[in-house]
Amino acid sequence: MRLIDIVHKAVRASVLCSVGLMCVCCSADHDGPSVLVSSTTAPASARSMPSTTVQPTSSVPVTTSENPVRSTLPGRLAGLLDCGDVKSNYEGPDPDPGLHCVLRAEDHTGLLFEVLGSPAITINVYDTQGRFRQTLRQQVDRPGYEMPFLSDLDGTGRQELLVVTTSGGTGGEDVAVWHAIGDSDRFSFAGTMFGFPQGVQQTVDGFIAIYTHGGAGSGVVTLYRFVDDKLVTLAVLDVEASADPYHPQWQTNGSAKCALDRTSGRTDVTDGRAMADRNAALVAAGIDPATAEEHFCSEPWVGDLYR
């Protein structure tokens, strides 16, 4: 799906919310600390459930789909739907005890992630043989709004676990990122980012780029990288449609005009210390601050932002 299509989808959702057809509320404490719970045995909730197909505890489960259930999952995960096939439930209970699905890593680990909606959200991690490895807990505003998913954000071959915690309307979504520790089967909380996670791009350097919609034909792209298993902000690109008459001095690339940290009022521009910190982050990542704007604004995906 093109990034602009993702933005249009968010705009439609915002319109539906305004007329009372669909709405997702934001929690004041959505950015609270995430909790990582490790154990060598399965959690109590997992031990108390059947080892075959799990029956939902809600009379109207969120896990309804036209696609068939998986039949090759081990043990207690057998028969669960892939979370990618789960239909969003905008009016279900919060947390939803009927939310019960599974993700399978599409990297060499093949790890399995059992997603439970109560408490919101609990994710049990298993190896390919169905042996329990870890429990992750992430506070989420509405678990049935959008399912967690896996994505190799930085192109290393290992997938990160992404959990949408709140919706920011047409601007984007708050996303919690869980990063694999080295090449192990364990994950740690790396941080959060805001934007459209389904449209995340990778730069030629392997940095993570996520777009946030700012208005008609304008927005920002925040660049991140992982440092010691933590998500670190590298820089911010201001972008707008190339057809707009504003900012003719910005670099044009296809459908977009682009500049590095040029929006007035942001501390990156007005605060000398913030600018020094930004430049230090670029240097640490191997990027020359003097040529960073041309370097990042020339990325092919920048030219496609407003097509």
Number of helices: 5
Shape: globular
Strand order, biggest sheet?
Answer: 1-6-5-4-3-2
How many domains, as an integer? 2
Strand content: 25-35%
Give structural notes.
It is a single chain. The protein has 2 domains: 27-197, no CATH class; 200-307, no CATH class. It is globular. A hairpin with a 5-residue loop joins strand 5 and strand 6. It has helices spanning 3-18, 44-47, 267-270, 272-284, 292-297, and strands at residues 35-37, 81-82, 100-104, 112-116, 122-126, 132-137, 149-151, 160-167, 173-180, 187-195, 201-202, 208-215, 218-227, 230-241, 251-253, 256-260. Residues 10-41, 44-71 and 264-270 have low confidence and may be disordered. It has a 6-stranded mixed sheet with strand order 1-6-5-4-3-2, with no helix packed on it. The protein contains 5 helices and 16 strands. With 307 residues, the protein is of the alpha+beta class.
